[in-house]
Write a structure and sequence with these properties.
The protein is α/β, with parallel strands linked by helices. 33% of the residues lie in helices and 30% in strands. It has a five-stranded parallel sheet with strand order 2-1-3-4-5, sandwiched between helices.
Length: 251
């Protein structure tokens, strides 16, 4: 990052000039310590400016004529900067970004969401090697089936890539989530259970309690107000969720 007052050197990549102007306005009105070092309207221009300007951070549109933001990153292979994707709601693209623990903003970008994204950028360790995460992201966007995408999870200083099918259940711990696998591993994520619900319910997971999300494929039976999993673990079903769970398991 630039030494000038901790200034974040930003490159805007979006084919719509109005979107780039809007982001500039948000940077200014929000008092963000950001220097827009360049703008690109397509991935060819972006590649040239990346090489020339060496930005700290790209605000990258996903859908552009002549090649998507994903195409740009595939061409680069790995990249020495952070990326915040800016996109309309396109489910598959957002799933790939979320699974890979990368950041995105929905258009039109909201000032409070922009601030949170920039805060997350500032909290990342500048020397952290993110090449494995980047390779997994490229693998995720190349998948045709969301079930084949892998979640990026950390334990200590190690990063793991886990398919949804490997998870038995997820439980809430304040604003954190514990994710459990069939072989007994446990991962703690700084994301909320609601975020994992958004990602995993379309892939066959059930919210059985306000603090628990369960992989339907891992359930063997119900017993005394609990779902029983293949690994013999029991997860409580709330009274409010009981009928919903019964219907889901009957399908």
């Amino acid at each position: 990052m630039s030494e000038l007052r901790g200034m974040i050197r930003v490159l805007l990549v979006d084919d719509d000039v109005a979107n780039r102007d809007y982001l500039r306005t948000l940077f200014h009105s929000g008092g963000h310590v950001v220097e827009v070092v360049g703008e690109a309207g397509n991935i060819g221009q972006a590649r040239a400016l990346i090489s020339e300007l060496k930005p700290d951070l790209l605000f990258l549109d996903v859908e552009m004529p002549g090649g998507s933001g994903f195409d740009l990153l595939q061409q680069l292979g790995t990249w020495p900067f952070e990326v915040i994707f800016c996109t309309g709601f396109e489910r598959y693209a957002i799933q790939a970004i979320r699974f890979s623990a990368l950041d995105y903003l929905l258009k039109p970008v909201q000032p409070d969401e922009l601030k949170l994204a920039l805060d997350r950028f500032k909290q990342r360790h500048p020397d952290q090697d993110r090449s494995a995460l980047q390779r997994q992201f490229l693998d995720n966007i190349g998948q045709r089936d969301e079930q084949a995408m892998k979640l990026t999870l950390t334990s200590g200083d190690r990063t793991y890539f886990i398919t949804p099918a490997e998870l038995t259940h997820c439980t809430a711990d304040d604003n954190y989530t514990e994710l459990h696998t069939g072989d007994g591993r446990r991962f703690v994520s700084a994301r909320t259970l609601k975020e994992y619900e958004d990602m995993l319910v379309p892939l066959g997971f059930l919210r059985v309690h306000r603090s628990a999300l369960v992989n339907k494929a891992q359930i063997t039976h119900l017993d005394d107000g609990h779902v029983v999993l293949k690994n013999k673990q029991r997860v409580e079903i709330s009274r409010r969720k009981k009928e919903e769970v019964m219907k889901a398991l009957a399908r």
